[in-house]
Amino acid sequence: MKALLSQTTGGPQTLALGDLPDPAPGADEILISVKACGVNFPDTLIIEDKYQFRPERPFSPGGEVAGTVAAIGSNIKDIRPGDRVIGWCCWGGMAEKVAVTRPHCIPIPDAMPFDEAAAFILTYGTSHYALKQRGTLQPGETLLVIGAAGGAGLAAVELGKAMGANVIAAVSTQEKLALATKHGAASGIVYPRGPFDKAALRSLSALFKQACPENGANVIYDAVGGDYAEAALRSIAWDGRFLVVGFPAGIPRLPLNLALLKSCQIIGVFWAAWIDRDPAGFRASARELLDFYRQGAIRPVISARYPLHQGADAIAALSARSAMGKLVVTIE
């Protein structure tokens, strides 16, 4: 089979199209004939050996796929060859075929296009887990989303609105703000790019505070990290919940006196670990997300599609933080 391969440690320029043996499903696995693969931030890390998992080379990046079932293992009883499915894995998705375990595979509606399916479960799953299980977001509360035009951030905007929150989008350009507003944000701000000195950090903090109600944001969804995290935390409400989702701007150093002064919570969001620890909770979340999709409350925004041989360009675009919504690699 054809696959986009990482054979040496490095950035997207080190990736090249190559051949691998067709995988065979184990007893508890499902072999997917991949039609599309979503591009996510971990893809930028794993090829540089900066992710928490370091697969043996050669390997393909890509952890979120959609396609049809090509074969099933002997222990699989509820999915059949030919079924349309979403699957997820840490790597291996930018290839013509990939094997995933049963808990990491869900059927999709016939009306759901493969490109949208490949841009669905990681971002919406992460954001739903963040807002519902970790942030306990309630109707009428204020939700501030940092990085609101990226894949996960835009999913948080849509889900926040669907859950009845007042959503404030924080983004880096006016174009991104227009996108977030179109998809459910009631208001928003455009923040400057770092790095920030002390004076610039004070200005950034003031910008976040001005965007929020007088009492602050009840829930802050931080998909950016870096200096933006502390500046946003200063705008949190009493008893607020600060959700730690991602760090494309770097791992922040938060002064914990802010958590004391606001009596707020700083909460980690690790969706991939949760789905293995609470399979029943994940299945309920997936059903709710697919219901939202059928109702039209959420729908992935795909800003660009790349053929498999240009998958490295997709990862490079994500690394540059220039993408809006999701990028998808299509496999014919």
Keywords:
332 residues, alpha/beta, seven-stranded mixed sheet, six-stranded parallel sheet, 15 strands
Structural description of this entry:
The protein has 332 residues and is an alpha/beta fold. Helix 7 links the parallel strand 11 and strand 12. The protein is globular, with a radius of gyration of 20 Å.
State mean pLDDT (0 to 100 scale): 95
Largest sheet report: 7 strands, mixed
Terminal Cα separation, in Å? Answer: 12 Å
* Rg, nearest Å: 20 Å
Q: Which structural class do the helices and strands define?
A: alpha/beta
Work out the number of β strands.
Answer: 15
Strand residue percentage: 25-35%
- What's the overall geometry? globular
Poorly predicted residue ranges = none
Can you count the helices?
11
Topology at a glance:
Elements lengths: L1 E5 L8 E5 L9 E11 L1 H6 L17 E9 L11 E5 L8 E5 L3 E3 L6 H5 L2 H14 L7 E5 L4 H12 L3 E6 L2 H9 L4 E4 L7 H14 L5 E6 L4 H7 L2 E9 L12 H6 L2 E4 L2 H7 L1 H17 L6 E6 L3 H9 L6 E5 L2
Parallel strand pairs: 8-9, 8-11, 9-10, 11-12, 12-13, 14-15
Antiparallel strand pairs: 1-2, 3-4, 3-6, 3-15, 4-5, 5-7
